[in-house]
Amino acid sequence: MGHLKQQRESEDSWYATAPDRQRHEALLRKALDVILEEAVFAGTSRDGKVCEWRDPEELRKTLDLSLPHGDGKEPADDATLLRLVRDTIKYSVKTGHPYFINQLYSGLDPYGLVGQWLTDALNPSVYTYEVSPVFTLMEEAVLQEMRNIVGFPVDQGDGIFCPGGSMANGYAISCARYHYFPEVKTKGMHGLPRLAVFTSEDAHYSVLKMATLLGLGGDSVYMVRTDARGRMDAAHLDELVTKARESGAHPLLVSATAGTTVLGAYDPIEPLTAACRRHNMWLHVDAAWGGGALMSRRRRHLLRGVHLADSVTWNPHKLLAAPQQCSTFLTRHTGVLGGAHSAKATYLFQPDKFYDTRYDTGDKHVQCGRRADVLKFWFMWKAKGTLGLEKHIDHLFDNVTYFKEAIRCRPGWELVLREPECTNVCFWYVPPSLRGQQDQADYNDRLHKVAPKIKERMMKEGSMMVTYQPLRGLPNFFRLVLQSSATTVEDMDHFICEIERLGCDL
């Protein structure tokens, strides 16, 4: 009787948000098998496509995206759900594929994947120790070690995991504003001078967005010129600071970039530090992309002086290839995050708990509910060690050397920067019809159309994905982003041959 009662209760509660072995185990195991086979292994095989391209309207008709609602609309059965799993995989871009080199993330790390799955299975929210004891301590351990690697003073400073590098850059502006004007927390921008933020013309657009979001306004962001390699011009920064003061603004923050999005340039941190000290400004280093070079003894010189910064953005999901998303904000200033953002909600951060409430770290975040993005990166780091992460970084830079040398003297190939600083290799492919015509008046216009056409062809074939863009008047050029250490020199040769195949008749 008890068994029948339990069965009836299970049938009556088919909608319950709880795993039931009898009802769900077969689906879970079959779905996991499909994910492993088709997304993890087949999806990263060089024999498979990077994408199965469909135009939006065609894809809308191919996928059953309708939702069951209203009378007579039965929920999907297991067979339908498994088909939807397969369709989702089939028509999604395989970002773990070795030929996906389109964005500042790629690869599929098996240890990171285990950490990601475990995170989702536990479904934590990291704001108090009582609900996330393991992840609270794990975050503190990882953030402390990252601050040590940056070179901040031992046992000093603070850090948080953020929902992306854009938000981390927003935290920098917020912390700088509170550091110099703590009254902003209670009184707002009213009564403060007009604040000025300085960053390079090649910096990530989030600096402008965050200044707008935080109430400084877009006009408060001064764009500093870059040199021929894309690095911020410290002398021009001084000129703009003077200009801002003369207009009645108060210079607040300089956001330097360690690894710009397009060219991969590293701003000169030491001269910028000197400028910030002269003008009493906060120095932030947006190392979301290029910060991974700190893990390599051969490459950390690219961020020389980063230990002098007030704060740093560093995204392990970029150059270190942790799964999306995994972003951190690090600062040398103890207490500024909590001071700027805490609200002391007594239903969550009660001061009379039975344990040390210093471990209730959530109040220094703008968010309340927050994923445990630390686990996937911590698990990778444990599995590979710092040495493994260093070898990963060195492999990426070795691939850059191979690729740039392979195309340097190859007919029809032209580097935008002869010596890239990071793992972005920017280049033009000039098809045979345009070679030798550089003196023609319409040459740049015609070259500008080459990269988009080659990109269209590779996407429709699904053979690879590499992005392109213009920059400061230059015609469209390709940007090969080398971020996965699964990429080999044979892959470099494949990229070259594939671009030539797709563009030779243009």
From TrEMBL:
One of its GO terms (biological process) is carboxylic acid metabolic process. Keywords: Decarboxylase, Lyase, Pyridoxal phosphate. Its cofactor is pyridoxal 5'-phosphate. Signal peptide: none annotated. The keyword tRNA-binding does not apply. GO terms for cellular component: cytoplasm. The modification N6-(pyridoxal phosphate)lysine is found at residue 318. Transmembrane segments: none annotated. This is Cysteine sulfinic acid decarboxylase. It comes from Frankliniella occidentalis (Western flower thrips). The gene is LOC113202557.
